[in-house]
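Hallway conversation turned thread

IA: we were arguing at lunch whether anyone had actually written out HECT domain-containing protein end to end. Turns out nobody had. So, for the record, here is the sequence (165 residues) and right after it the C-alpha cells. Reply here if something looks off.
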Amino acid sequence: MSTVACYVSESTTIEDLEKAKAPLLDYLANAGCLRPLRSIRDRDLLVQDVMFQVIHRVQGPFQRFREGLKTLGVLEKIQKHPDSFRPLFYIGIRHWSICCPSIGFSPSPSVEFIHKEDDDFSSTPLFPMANTCVNCIRLPLHASYQLFKEKFDFAIGNTYGFGRA
C-alpha cells in the first residue's frame, strides 16, 4: 500500500496519477474516499486520503490486535521468529474456503437471483454481489453455466471489497 501511495505522490501527469490510482480503486471505494481526478493538483488530496486510511483508520484495530497477541504471550515470539509465523499472516496465492463462524449465522444465509426486471440497474450486472449485513449473495442470471462460472470465479478471485462477492 505504501509503495502505491509513493507512486501516487510522485506522479507528475494526470495519466501517471490515474495509473498509480488504479490498484487502489477497491480500497478507496471501500474507504469512502474515491474521488475523480481532474488535474494533477488532486494528487495531494488522494495522498491525504490514503495516508488517513492507512495511519488513522487502521491504527486502533492494529493496536487491539497487537495487545491481544501480547496478552496471549505470542507477540514476543512473533518478533523473535517472524518467518515462522509468516504463513499465519500472509497468503502468497489467492484462495478462499468456506467455514462457519463460531457464533453461527444470523440471519440465515440466503441466495437471490437477479432478473433483469428485478434490479435497479439499466442492465443486469455481470458479477455476483454480496450483502454481508444480511448474509445474502445476489447472483445474476447468465445465458450459460460456463459464463456464470467465469464471472463468479473472476469476482471471487479479484474482489477484496466489502459488500461484494
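OS: looked through it. DSSP finds seven helices and three strands in the chain.
IA: good, adding that to the notes. The chain has two domains: 2-89, 110-158.
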